[in-house]
Amino acid sequence: MTTPPPERGPAAEPLQSSSDAGDRPTDFTPEHRAALDLRQLDQDRTLAAVHSLEAALAAAAPGRESRWRDTVRASLDVLHDATADEERNAAEPDSILSDIARTQPRLRNRVRGLRAQYRQVAETIHRLRHELDESDTDTDVADLRQRLSWLLSSLRHQRARESDLIYEAYFEAFKRDVEQDAGGST
């Protein structure tokens, strides 16, 4: 069951400092905060799906491969939904990544790289789901665990790269950390 994303308001003001142009904001706007909050909701949902998949992978499989495979498949489906929503929201014109790509040319290639990683993760999940659908018997549990572990590592790497990019963009625009504007809540 997927949770609908929060309603989006008008496009956020550009993530640029007042030194970039006379009428641009000097602080994080409510639109920026809403975009960051949506990103956090997406990442929280993905993290919950990751934890569910990790628990499914850690379950005992010998003698119960079919049940194990079904549980892993169900967890992978939840992860698929969560990452698809995260990718879709990150591609929206009013997302934080879109704002960074639009307003900070130096960081555009990194935004493109993150979006490419979103696509690679989606393709990997699709292939693994298909493989689980096709394997009624003879599931190589150890191999599947290893490949899903690589997928989970890729998601952690992507999450860290995205966080670093957002913090770098914010610091470049406002010359202070996001936590200072959020009162330490981010």
Task: Write a compact overview of the structure shown.
Helices cover 70% and strands 0% of the residues. It is mostly helical and 186 residues long.
Give me the Rg, rounded.
Answer: 19 Å
CATH class: Mainly Alpha
Architecture (CATH level 2) name:
Up-down Bundle
Quaternary status: single chain
Count the E strands.
0
**Which of globular, elongated, flat, extended, rod-shaped describes the shape?**
elongated
β-strand amount: under 5%
Major beta-sheet overview: none
**Tally of contiguous helical segments:** 6
Q: Return residue spans where pLDDT drops below 50 for at least 5 consecutive residues.
A: 1-13, 16-25
| Order of SSEs | HHHHHH
Helix/sheet category: mainly alpha
Say what the CATH topology is: Four Helix Bundle (Hemerythrin (Met), subunit A)
- The average pLDDT is 83
Task: Name the helicity range.
Answer: 55-70%
How would you describe the overall organization of this protein?
The chain starts with 29 loop residues before the first helix and ends with a helix. It contains 6 helices and no strands. It is mainly alpha-helical and 186 residues long. The chain has one domain (30-182): Four Helix Bundle (Hemerythrin (Met), subunit A) (Up-down Bundle). The longest helix has 34 residues, at 141-174. It has helices spanning 30-58, 65-91, 96-103, 108-134, 141-174, 178-182.
